[in-house]
Amino acid sequence: MLEIRFHGRGGQGTVVATTLLAKAFFQAGYQVQSFPFFGVERRGAPVEAYVRVDKEEILLRTNVSSPDHIVVQDQTLLHSIDVTRGLKPGGWILINSPALPADLKPFEKYELAWVDANRIALKHHLGTRTHPIANTPMIGAFARVLGMPPVDAIVAAIREDVPGKVKANVRAAEEAYKTVKTFRTSAVG
Length: 189
Fold this sequence. Notes:
By secondary structure, the chain is α/β, with parallel strands linked by helices. It has a single domain (2-187), classed as Pyruvate-ferredoxin Oxidoreductase, domain 3, CATH 3.40.920. The protein has five helices and seven strands; from the N terminus they run E-H-E-E-E-E-E-H-H-H-H-E. It has a seven-stranded mixed sheet, with helices on one face. The radius of gyration is 15 Å and the shape is globular. The mean pLDDT is 92.
């Protein structure tokens, strides 16, 4: 079973991102679960959401405490919470950031990827200048990093479930898929 934890802030579309990713995996032939965990339910508050993926039926009904991979939709969360909490060694951390974090020490057991999803969202007029909605670029980038689900399944999920700006969201996901960068921390040591 593959378990993925998303970190974001209220209003960024974190829960929608996990729903879209789960639907893309489902279209690719997997069994899925997608569910949020809310603390303080207000715009800007930290939010976690989860996706489980397996070829077999998923009977587990708990939060994801030991994820295989992490997606961080807001890089400021790197300084306020432990996004690596419970992350399995060697797991991917995808960060919405224009650059690799300056301090790599907290990430030495993991693989890093980053994409400037905010820039991509703004380019495609998703959200506002002060509140870009970068969820579709993040799932596009994640699909590339993980090598699944296929980008066509991501596009199909967006077309099926995103209520507005469908073409812009598709283009944003495809651009992030093409431009995400990776860094293997194992190459440092």
